[in-house]
Amino acid sequence: MIGGDILVVEDEPAIQELVAVNLEHAGYRVQRAYSVGEAESLIREVRPDLILLDWMLPDLAGTVLARRLRGDQRMKDIPIIMLTARAQETDKIEGLESGADDYVTKPFSPKELLARIKAVLRRRAPQLTDDLIEIGDLRLDPAAHRVSGNGSDINLGPTEFKLLHFFMTHPERVYSRVQLLDQVWGDHVFVEERTVDVHIRRLRQALESTGHDRLIETVRGTGYRLHA
Ligand code: CA
Fold it and tell me: How far is the CA of 183 from the centre of ligand 1 (A)?
Protein backbone atom coordinates (compact mmCIF):
# COMPACT_ATOMS: atom_id res chain seq x y z
CA MET A 1 0.00 0.00 0.00
CA ILE A 2 1.44 3.35 -0.98
CA GLY A 3 -0.96 5.68 0.78
CA GLY A 4 -3.26 8.31 -0.57
CA ASP A 5 -5.57 10.86 1.03
CA ILE A 6 -9.03 9.63 1.90
CA LEU A 7 -11.76 11.97 3.05
CA VAL A 8 -14.31 10.32 5.34
CA VAL A 9 -17.63 12.18 5.44
CA GLU A 10 -19.69 10.60 8.21
CA ASP A 11 -21.67 12.21 11.02
CA GLU A 12 -21.85 9.23 13.36
CA PRO A 13 -18.72 9.53 15.57
CA ALA A 14 -18.42 5.79 16.26
CA ILE A 15 -18.47 4.89 12.56
CA GLN A 16 -16.21 7.81 11.66
CA GLU A 17 -13.69 6.60 14.26
CA LEU A 18 -13.87 2.94 13.20
CA VAL A 19 -13.37 3.78 9.54
CA ALA A 20 -10.62 6.34 10.10
CA VAL A 21 -8.60 4.10 12.41
CA ASN A 22 -8.75 1.18 9.99
CA LEU A 23 -7.77 3.32 7.01
CA GLU A 24 -4.84 4.85 8.88
CA HIS A 25 -3.73 1.39 9.92
CA ALA A 26 -3.80 0.38 6.24
CA GLY A 27 -1.48 3.28 5.39
CA TYR A 28 -3.88 5.95 4.14
CA ARG A 29 -3.92 9.55 5.32
CA VAL A 30 -7.38 10.37 6.60
CA GLN A 31 -9.30 13.65 6.71
CA ARG A 32 -12.55 13.72 8.66
CA ALA A 33 -15.70 15.68 7.93
CA TYR A 34 -19.07 15.45 9.68
CA SER A 35 -21.20 17.33 7.13
CA VAL A 36 -21.30 18.25 3.43
CA GLY A 37 -20.29 21.83 4.28
CA GLU A 38 -17.25 20.69 6.24
CA ALA A 39 -16.31 18.25 3.46
CA GLU A 40 -16.46 21.00 0.85
CA SER A 41 -14.13 23.29 2.75
CA LEU A 42 -11.61 20.44 3.29
CA ILE A 43 -11.76 19.48 -0.40
CA ARG A 44 -10.88 23.05 -1.37
CA GLU A 45 -7.66 22.75 0.67
CA VAL A 46 -6.55 19.24 -0.24
CA ARG A 47 -7.94 17.32 -3.17
CA PRO A 48 -8.57 13.83 -1.73
CA ASP A 49 -7.70 10.70 -3.72
CA LEU A 50 -10.95 9.06 -2.66
CA ILE A 51 -14.05 10.02 -0.68
CA LEU A 52 -16.10 7.78 1.60
CA LEU A 53 -19.42 9.52 1.70
CA ASP A 54 -22.29 8.84 4.07
CA TRP A 55 -25.74 9.32 2.55
CA MET A 56 -27.62 10.85 5.50
CA LEU A 57 -25.70 13.90 6.73
CA PRO A 58 -26.97 16.71 8.98
CA ASP A 59 -26.90 19.53 6.39
CA LEU A 60 -27.37 17.90 2.97
CA ALA A 61 -27.59 14.42 1.48
CA GLY A 62 -24.28 12.83 0.49
CA THR A 63 -25.65 12.40 -3.03
CA VAL A 64 -25.85 16.21 -3.35
CA LEU A 65 -22.10 16.45 -2.70
CA ALA A 66 -21.45 13.60 -5.16
CA ARG A 67 -23.37 15.42 -7.90
CA ARG A 68 -21.61 18.72 -7.18
CA LEU A 69 -18.19 17.07 -7.42
CA ARG A 70 -19.08 15.33 -10.67
CA GLY A 71 -19.99 18.71 -12.12
CA ASP A 72 -16.66 20.27 -11.09
CA GLN A 73 -13.87 20.15 -13.66
CA ARG A 74 -11.09 19.68 -11.08
CA MET A 75 -12.96 17.30 -8.77
CA LYS A 76 -14.95 15.15 -11.17
CA ASP A 77 -12.41 12.31 -11.24
CA ILE A 78 -12.25 11.76 -7.47
CA PRO A 79 -13.54 8.22 -6.74
CA ILE A 80 -16.52 8.17 -4.37
CA ILE A 81 -17.83 5.27 -2.30
CA MET A 82 -21.22 5.86 -0.67
CA LEU A 83 -21.75 4.58 2.88
CA THR A 84 -25.32 4.06 3.87
CA ALA A 85 -27.79 2.22 6.00
CA ARG A 86 -30.25 2.16 3.14
CA ALA A 87 -30.25 -1.17 1.44
CA GLN A 88 -33.11 -0.85 -0.99
CA GLU A 89 -32.41 -1.37 -4.65
CA THR A 90 -33.87 2.01 -5.73
CA ASP A 91 -31.59 3.84 -3.29
CA LYS A 92 -28.61 1.98 -4.65
CA ILE A 93 -29.48 3.11 -8.17
CA GLU A 94 -29.91 6.71 -7.01
CA GLY A 95 -26.51 6.56 -5.30
CA LEU A 96 -24.78 5.30 -8.41
CA GLU A 97 -26.62 7.79 -10.62
CA SER A 98 -25.35 10.65 -8.46
CA GLY A 99 -21.87 9.65 -9.59
CA ALA A 100 -20.69 7.27 -6.85
CA ASP A 101 -18.32 4.51 -7.98
CA ASP A 102 -19.47 2.01 -5.41
CA TYR A 103 -21.86 1.57 -2.56
CA VAL A 104 -21.27 -0.04 0.84
CA THR A 105 -24.24 -0.81 3.07
CA LYS A 106 -23.98 -0.48 6.86
CA PRO A 107 -23.12 -2.40 8.86
CA PHE A 108 -19.95 -3.31 7.00
CA SER A 109 -16.70 -4.89 8.16
CA PRO A 110 -13.51 -2.80 7.89
CA LYS A 111 -12.04 -5.64 5.84
CA GLU A 112 -14.86 -5.42 3.30
CA LEU A 113 -14.54 -1.65 3.12
CA LEU A 114 -10.78 -1.85 2.48
CA ALA A 115 -11.34 -4.41 -0.28
CA ARG A 116 -13.90 -2.13 -1.94
CA ILE A 117 -11.53 0.84 -1.67
CA LYS A 118 -8.75 -1.14 -3.32
CA ALA A 119 -11.03 -2.28 -6.12
CA VAL A 120 -12.23 1.27 -6.81
CA LEU A 121 -8.67 2.65 -6.73
CA ARG A 122 -7.46 -0.08 -9.07
CA ARG A 123 -10.12 1.00 -11.55
CA ARG A 124 -10.06 4.76 -11.06
CA ALA A 125 -6.65 5.66 -9.61
CA PRO A 126 -4.19 2.81 -10.33
CA GLN A 127 -1.25 5.04 -9.35
CA LEU A 128 -2.40 4.61 -5.75
CA THR A 129 -2.21 0.81 -5.76
CA ASP A 130 0.97 -1.22 -5.42
CA ASP A 131 0.45 -3.27 -8.57
CA LEU A 132 3.64 -3.87 -10.54
CA ILE A 133 3.56 -2.04 -13.85
CA GLU A 134 5.57 -2.59 -17.04
CA ILE A 135 5.71 -0.63 -20.27
CA GLY A 136 8.06 -2.28 -22.73
CA ASP A 137 11.18 -2.96 -20.69
CA LEU A 138 10.55 -0.17 -18.22
CA ARG A 139 9.34 -1.66 -14.97
CA LEU A 140 8.01 0.06 -11.85
CA ASP A 141 7.43 -1.83 -8.63
CA PRO A 142 5.52 0.38 -6.13
CA ALA A 143 5.76 -2.12 -3.27
CA ALA A 144 9.56 -2.30 -3.49
CA HIS A 145 9.78 1.36 -4.62
CA ARG A 146 12.04 0.29 -7.51
CA VAL A 147 12.28 1.27 -11.13
CA SER A 148 14.35 -0.55 -13.73
CA GLY A 149 14.93 -0.23 -17.44
CA ASN A 150 16.29 -3.14 -19.50
CA GLY A 151 17.00 -4.84 -16.18
CA SER A 152 19.16 -2.09 -14.68
CA ASP A 153 18.10 -0.01 -11.70
CA ILE A 154 17.03 3.59 -12.17
CA ASN A 155 17.26 5.85 -9.12
CA LEU A 156 14.44 8.35 -8.73
CA GLY A 157 13.56 10.90 -6.08
CA PRO A 158 10.14 10.50 -4.41
CA THR A 159 8.39 13.08 -6.61
CA GLU A 160 9.89 11.71 -9.83
CA PHE A 161 8.82 8.23 -8.74
CA LYS A 162 5.23 9.39 -8.22
CA LEU A 163 5.24 11.25 -11.53
CA LEU A 164 6.50 8.21 -13.43
CA HIS A 165 4.01 5.96 -11.63
CA PHE A 166 1.18 8.29 -12.63
CA PHE A 167 2.33 8.47 -16.26
CA MET A 168 2.82 4.69 -16.51
CA THR A 169 -0.70 4.05 -15.21
CA HIS A 170 -2.14 6.70 -17.59
CA PRO A 171 -0.21 6.29 -20.84
CA GLU A 172 -1.02 8.14 -24.07
CA ARG A 173 -3.04 10.83 -22.32
CA VAL A 174 -1.95 14.45 -22.16
CA TYR A 175 -1.95 16.10 -18.73
CA SER A 176 -1.66 19.82 -18.07
CA ARG A 177 0.62 21.08 -15.32
CA VAL A 178 -2.42 21.85 -13.13
CA GLN A 179 -3.75 18.31 -13.61
CA LEU A 180 -0.35 16.86 -12.71
CA LEU A 181 -0.20 19.03 -9.60
CA ASP A 182 -3.65 17.74 -8.60
CA GLN A 183 -2.83 14.11 -9.30
CA VAL A 184 0.79 13.85 -8.14
CA TRP A 185 1.20 16.60 -5.54
CA GLY A 186 -2.38 16.65 -4.26
CA ASP A 187 -2.20 19.76 -2.15
CA HIS A 188 -0.72 22.29 -4.56
CA VAL A 189 -1.98 25.55 -3.14
CA PHE A 190 1.55 26.86 -2.69
CA VAL A 191 3.24 24.98 -5.53
CA GLU A 192 3.95 26.86 -8.75
CA GLU A 193 3.23 25.31 -12.12
CA ARG A 194 6.85 25.53 -13.19
CA THR A 195 7.70 23.09 -10.37
CA VAL A 196 6.22 20.42 -12.64
CA ASP A 197 8.74 21.30 -15.35
CA VAL A 198 11.60 21.01 -12.86
CA HIS A 199 10.56 17.49 -11.86
CA ILE A 200 9.89 16.43 -15.46
CA ARG A 201 13.43 17.50 -16.30
CA ARG A 202 14.81 15.47 -13.38
CA LEU A 203 12.73 12.47 -14.37
CA ARG A 204 14.00 12.60 -17.97
CA GLN A 205 17.60 12.91 -16.74
CA ALA A 206 17.19 9.83 -14.58
CA LEU A 207 15.64 7.86 -17.46
CA GLU A 208 18.37 8.87 -19.93
CA SER A 209 20.77 6.08 -18.96
CA THR A 210 18.35 3.43 -20.27
CA GLY A 211 16.96 5.55 -23.12
CA HIS A 212 13.49 5.80 -21.57
CA ASP A 213 13.55 9.59 -21.37
CA ARG A 214 11.97 9.63 -24.83
CA LEU A 215 8.78 8.14 -23.38
CA ILE A 216 7.98 11.44 -21.64
CA GLU A 217 6.79 13.81 -24.33
CA THR A 218 6.16 17.54 -24.12
CA VAL A 219 2.91 18.51 -25.81
CA ARG A 220 3.39 22.12 -26.78
CA GLY A 221 0.96 24.51 -25.13
CA THR A 222 -0.77 21.68 -23.28
CA GLY A 223 1.43 19.64 -20.97
CA TYR A 224 3.04 16.22 -20.87
CA ARG A 225 2.28 12.70 -21.96
CA LEU A 226 3.85 9.24 -21.68
CA HIS A 227 3.97 7.76 -25.14
CA ALA A 228 4.63 4.02 -24.98
CA1 CA B 1 -25.39 9.60 8.80
Answer: 29
Reported as a single tens digit per residue, the pLDDT across 137-150 is 999 999 899 999 99
Where on the phi/psi map is residue 223: left (φ > 0), alpha (ψ -120 to 50), or beta? Answer: left
Same-domain pairing of 84 and 176: no
Residue 18 alpha carbon to ligand 1 centre in Å: 14
In angstroms, what is the span from residue 85 Cα to ligand 1's centroid? 8
Q: How many helices (H) and strands (E) does the chain have?
A: 8, 11
> Is residue 197 located within the same domain as residue 117?
no
Q: How far apart are CA 103 and CA 145, in angstroms?
A: 32
Q: How far is the CA of 74 from the centre of ligand 1 (A)?
A: 26
Ligand 1: centre distance to CA 55 (Å): 6
Residues 26 and 121 in one domain: yes
The boundaries of the domain holding residue 165 are 133-226
pLDDT tens-digit readout, 72-87: 988 988 999 999 887 6
